[in-house]
Design brief:
This protein is an alpha/beta fold. It contains ten helices and 16 strands.
């Protein structure tokens, strides 16, 4: 079968199409015929050596498909069942993937494979950030960086569902339109965004900043917060955040900073399914509509990552098998 393998760390060019033997599910695992897989910054971090995962490895962490075999001890999933996953399925850029049964999510009939992948990794990320990392309250003013991206659009939509008013940062006019379509009340450029946020909030600042950009926005994000505001750094697309002088939190108004990981907010099968059940419920009710920003054949995986990393895209990027 076809799988994409990373033998050495590097750019998208190291994603190598390879003929490999089909895997076999072990105890507590299922084998899935992959129909759609997701393109994520986590894949980029793995591919460049920024995670503990050692090369060589099979690339891809997220997908949806149909169970073709079950391992010993799997009782709640069956052959022929549609499932999705955003962890526990390393090697998802392949024809077949082995997925930990506890991390495979049954997909409801009303959610198709593409929608499922568009809402899994990024939707669960948005869910834990808005519901738990900083619980958004009705009337909160919220700043979402990269508001036109896959996570950014879902953060905006979920925060709006919670009753917040969202300010989004974007880099182009096209992305500004995408952010507004996702529900952002105001859209600003990155240059001088902290001052723009202050002006839009009558000098008060926002309750929370959701920052997946990292190095380029960190100082401005702190400056955009209200007294006792929270900076949630969930990614570092522009590079690692600089060291933080704790006294800066005091001078900024008794601020909070947190660096959550989706891994720590999905520690059990029950927590994973609680989050996905709510997300799929919003989708089925028409309250949450994930945006697919690009569809690529699996064989164009390098192109997909080149587009993602050059910030040429909005919404979720999918690989179709």
């Amino acid at each position: 079968m076809l799988a994409y393998v990373v033998d050495d760390f590097g750019g998208p060019e190291v994603l190598t199409p390879t003929e490999v033997d089909p895997p076999t599910p072990g105890p507590g695992q299922v084998l899935v015929e992959v129909r759609v897989s997701g393109v994520n910054f986590l894949d980029t971090y793995q591919r460049t050596g920024a995670t503990p995962l050692a090369a060589p490895f099979r690339a891809g962490v997220e997908g949806a498909g149909v169970v073709t075999a079950v391992g010993e001890g799997v009782g709640d999933l069956a052959v022929g069942q549609r499932v999705g996953w955003f962890s526990g399925g390393q090697g998802s850029f392949a024809d077949l993937a082995v997925v930990d049964a506890g991390k495979a999510v049954p997909l409801p009939d009303e959610v198709d494979d593409e929608t499922a992948v568009a809402v899994l990794m990024q939707g669960v990320t948005a869910h834990n950030l808005v519901i738990d990392a900083y619980p958004v309250q009705p009337g909160d003013r919220v700043l979402v960086h990269a508001a036109a991206g896959g996570v950014g659009q879902l953060l905006t939509r979920v925060a709006t569902l919670r009753g917040a008013a969202v300010i989004g940062t974007v880099s182009t006019d096209a992305k500004a339109s995408a952010a507004r379509a996702a529900g952002a009340e105001h859209v600003v450029a990155y240059d001088g965004f902290a001052d723009a946020v202050r002006a839009l909030t009558d000098g008060e600042g926002v309750a929370v900043v959701y920052d997946g950009v990292g190095a380029d926005t960190f100082a401005g994000s702190l400056a955009a917060l209200r007294v006792r505001g929270t900076l949630v750094v969930y990614g570092t697309a522009s590079g690692p955040t600089p060291p933080l002088d704790v006294a800066r939190l005091n001078s900024g108004g008794s601020l909070y900073v947190t660096r959550p990981s989706v891994v720590h907010y999905t520690r059990t099968p029950e927590e994973i399914r609680r989050r996905t059940d709510e997300l799929f419920g919003w989708v089925a009710a028409g309250e949450l509509t994930p945006v697919v920003g690009g569809r690529y054949p699996l064989t164009a995986v390098r192109e997909a990552f080149a587009d993602l990393e050059a910030r040429r895209t909005t919404g979720k990027l999918l690989l179709l098998h």
